[in-house]
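Lab manual, section 2.4: Encoding a predicted structure.

Procedure: take the sequence of the chain (175 residues), apply the prediction step described in section 2.3, and record the output as structure tokens. A sample record is shown.
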Amino acid sequence: MTENEGAKPTSAKATNDEAAYKNALLERFREVPATPVPKETGVLSEKAVDYIYRAIDRQINKARGALAYNGLLFASFSLIARNSKDTVILTLACLGAILALASCFPLIFHLMIFDVGDSTNYASSQSDFMATFASMWKRRLSLKVSLWVSGIATVFAILLPIYFLHGVLRGQIPQ
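Recorded output:
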């Protein structure tokens, strides 16, 4: 038996399946109590809760970086739009600015606002894990959407100098 024969196959669907991800984490961090009990009633380690809190911290740090990046994109698009008379450059700059600004909304409204929830969420490590995991799983979609919209705005930022240089080389846009 080779090293990879016992490994479970991974697929794109498996990595996006909430139940599979949650079950893998629950299994990984389940503590074995000193006295024998059924596997289903095992104790969830506080390490699992810490792991999920760290995952949320990573999401927030990514959101902070994306907000700063989108702020720079927005400022550069605004500067280009203000100083350009070419309609194509003006259109690209305006669309890029709108996309850079729009990519911030999912981050601000869903990732940066945190509701501590019900007090029963903190009664045990199991309930804390479940509540925090649900929040983390929902937030990942907001981050993904925001990064895709930001990526499209970045494409506009790449197209602007290409179009400008192409026009300069052809003598169509004044330097």
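Check your result against the sample. The first helix runs from residue 12 to 16.
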